[in-house]
Every structure is written in C-alpha cells, then in structure tokens.
Write a structure and sequence with these properties.
The complex is a heterodimer. Chain A is α/β, with parallel strands linked by helices. Chain A contains eleven helices and eleven strands. Chain A starts with a helix and ends with a helix. Chain B folds into two domains: 150 residues, Rossmann fold (3-Layer(aba) Sandwich); 137 residues, 3-Layer(aba) Sandwich (Rossmann fold), CATH 3.40.50. The mean pLDDT of chain B is 93. The chains are: A alpha/beta, B alpha/beta.
Amino acid sequence: MTAPGALTGRAPYSVPPTGTPVRVAFVGQRTYFEACSVHRELPGLVPTFIDFRGGANVGEMLATLTSFAPHVVVVFRPEILPAGIFADLDAAVVGFTTEPLPRAGEPAHPLLVSNLAELDAADAGNFDRVICFDPYGWDAAAERLPAWRCMPLPVDDRLFAPVRPARQPPRALFIGFPTEHRQRYLGPVQEEFDIVHYAHGLLGEDLRAAMAGADIGINLHGARWPLSFENRVLLHLAAGHLLISEPLSPSFGLEPGLDFLEVADADDFSLRVHEAHAEPEAHHQVRVRGRHKAEQFRASSVWPRVVRDLLEDLAAFGTAR
Amino acid sequence: MNARDDLPYPGPPGDGPLRLAFVGRSTVFAPAALERHDGAVRTLFVDHRRGGDPGDTRAALDAFAPHAVVVFRPGAVAPGTFAGLRAPVLGVVTQPADVPAHDDADRLVALTPCRLPGAWRSMPTPVADRFFRPVRRVRGVPRMLFLGPPTAHRERYLLDVKHRFDCLHAVFGLDADELERVLDAHHIAFNLDGEPGVEDRVPLHLAAGQLLITEPLAPGYGLESGLDHLEVSYPEELLHAATTARTYPDAYHRMRVRGRQKAERLRASRVWPALVRDLLLDLRAFGTHRSAAA
C-alpha cells in the first residue's frame, strides 16, 4: 500500500513517500482492543499497539507514540483521550466508538445514555475522523464527533482458526461479565455442562488458548434490551466456533440459522446447548458459514483498506482538526 | 458410639493397593482430589453433577470396587445411590445444603468455609499434586488472577485492579488442564469472600507458587499474614498491594516461598491417604450407622 496523499498534494499530515509503508499506531485498552488490531507487518503497513486506558499516564503514551512516529493513529474509545492531547501530532487520527449509543427515534435506555455521557468527554479536536461501531447510534455520535463510517471491530488474524471437528463432548465458552440477564441463561445450563466462563482480562495468549479450547461460543447481551453486536460475536466466528447468540442488532450481514444459531429466550438457549452437546457435528456447516463470514472482518484485510481510504479522504476533503 | 474392633466393610488387602474413588463434579473438585495409580493406592474420579444419572455413577463405582469412596457435595447425589455399596462413604460437604441422606455417608467432612454441626472433622480443601509448582522468579510484568464468580463485594475490591492491570477473572468451568495453564501464566492471585473461611482457591494459589493477596482468613489454618500471604482489608489496600507487587515482584519472593511451603500440608497425596486410613480406623473403632455395613 502506498500513501495516496502525494497524489493530490493536499494531505494535511506527513505521508510516507510512495512505496514506503504507513506506520499505524493502535491506541486503546489492550484488554479489549488488541484483539481488534493488526499485530504484524503487512505489505505497506507497519503496526504497533500502545496500551492506554482512561486515567493512565499520558506522557508515557505520547512518548511511545512519538518514538514510533506514526502516519495514522487509531484510538479505540475516543473518550479516553484528554482534550487537546494530539494538538501537535503530525498524523491522521481516527477514533473508534465501541459502545452502543441511543438510537434516534427510540426510547433511551439508561445504559445507552450512560455510554453517551462517557462519549461526551471526547474532544472532537483530537480526531480527524471517527468510526462508529453502531450505525444506529450514528446521529448521537455525529453530533459530537466527526463521524465518518460504521463497521464492527475487526478481528486479529491470530484468532482465526479452521473449523475443526467438535470435541466429544463439545466445550462451550462465554466471555463477558455476568449480569442478571446472562445468568438467567447460563445458570441452569451450567448445572449440566461445563461452560467455561471468563469475566475479564482474557487477552493475548490466554485468549487464543481459550478460543482454541472451545467448540461453541456464546453471545448474550448484558440485558434483554438493548440489543447490540458485541465484538465477541466475530471472535467466535473467526475461531470456527458454533455461535449461539441472542438476536444481533445491527447484524452486519450475519444470518441467523445460517452463520449462527439465534436464541429467543433462556429456554431456547438451553435447548440449543443441549442439542449441540447431543449432536456436536449437527451444526458443522453453520460453523463453516460463520467462519467464512468472519473473513470479511479479518484485521489484515480491513485495516489497510480503512487506512488507505482515510488518507485519501483527508487528502480529498481535508480536516477540521 | 461404643468402641469395637472390626471394620464394617471389606478392607484393603494387606498386599494390594487401596482403591479409592472420588465422586463429584470434576471441574469443581478434581483439583482437590488425589490421582494416583501405583502399588499402594489406585484412584478413580467419577464425574457426577446435580441431576446426573445415579445409575451411571453407581455402575462406575461397582466396576471399580473401591475400598473407600469420597463424595464431594453428597447432597447433589440422589438419595440411595450408595445403598448396599460395601465400602465406607465419606461425604465432603462445602455448604449446609450438601448434607446427604442419613444412610448415604458413614462420616462427613466439612470443607471450610462450611460449618457443619456433627461433622467428623473440618479441614481446608486439599490440592491435587499436579497443581504444585516451584516458586519461580518473575520475568517481566507480573500477571494477576482471580478465580470465582463475581459478587458486589468482590467487584468493589477488584474494579480498580481490573481497570489498571488486566487482571484475568475466570468465573467457572475450567478443566484441570486449563486451570494449570492459567495458574502457570499468572504470578499474583486474589482471594476475596467478604466472610470468614478459607476457600479452596487459597491453598491452590499457594501451591502454585503465586503471591496470594487476600482478605483476612478465619480460621487461618496456620497461615500467617505478612509471612506467607498479603492480607488486605479494604479495596484501596488491595490496589496498593497489587500495585506494589506488580512494580516490585521480587519484593515478595520469599513470601511466595513461605506460602508454597505451607501448602505442602494440603498436598492431596499427603492428605487423602492419611484421611482414609483414619476413616477406616475410626470405623473399626466406632462402627457406622449405614445399613450397607456388615
């Protein structure tokens, strides 16, 4: 990939000379977002991941960033950055909102309102463009930040695995904090089956090992409403798991019954888990379809194109930063 | 009971191995059981969970013909499952709801934090030998771990640690291999309950050579705060201890060594044979109420 800014000569930031790679820094809490980033050099793209979370030492983060001298910075959760922190940074900065926001024309859920309140802390002046994970929250995001496009969080290439024959019995995995809603689904089933459950902090080699050790991935929303599209959805599909999930909104092209098993309530969930244990191979083709769909979100496919488009967009339309 | 001098069940042969069966949910209790297959002891773990088929469990036991059976959470096994079984049954109770029907166990052991009136004895949870590790120096940044379901109390303590340090929080369902891997990859472990007791994770973390940061333990079972583990009493103290341990991992190396030494007393290969031997002696001396006895 070559930096296209040179084509127009109107790029607002330094771009690498033609034929040299773009340096891309991913900034965010490693716990959640390392699994969404590029981890190795690609043709035309040199990545790094900088662990940074709200309240952490800004000076260390800036020093690391400066030494890397990125052309593009991707910031997961724009609200974690202090106002004005990137005022002197000669690089394109794209934020990525990762939490669902209130939907235009729908009643506001307290959780969504809370997410919006956190997003209010984001300084629009830190960003050239912002990617919204949730298209239904576009209006809310665009009122505050330079919203640019919507897409789900991509999946680190290291988490992709071929669909293997399921173990006998299969191993099911849930990654997420227990809530009353989730325990209503999981609790009765855990009496019978050993569903592996991690609440927090599963990352790096631990995450890869946990994914490799499972055949079934479970996605349950934090509450019955609002619906969402948690990033674990794509992690499980990429790992070749049979995904059992509550309805997804947005769906990002995933089709219930084809790419994953959709469950309407706790009884339905229990039925599907029982089925999957009784006949582990019955849904093999669903796993293959789901794994196939996940390819659309492979980090090494997504990020180079997004970065290229970002630079072209900035060259064409400039920035308010 | 009056003292007697005969064992009410067929005992182990003088020249053969003791066959010892464990019954319980493997993901929960296998880390506390003994796994041994030699001329002195042969063990079998029968996975049985609440609502499981008692016929399968009984068939597995009958095929093994144990000289003693240890049943974890005996209340989760259907009444009568051990009827007619010609072997002493030791019920291991972790909560009052686990108490079995009168005829389903010869003796009851209460694993703390359960306090069980009439229990034969009370003790902390043993640790399977496979989880014991030498204390190794920490290379790089120490990693933190909490095992157990979240509660409001636990989250109040762990919130800041999770936010700052990526503490791995495993809730449920790890099998022995996964548990070993997780223990191997982490150096600092927390124990939080908000009530007196020594949960099974306490000896487990000490056996794995981890630095244990815990709320006060009661009873202490000989563990000494500040010598073999770090004691904290409120969330800010836990954050401070975790931060210090993360920043200066070697500062607590000797504490980990001390904790690891203490854990030896709970090594499964040391605890279970001694306990079963004492069970047989106790039955020989005082008999049993079980109708399956001779």
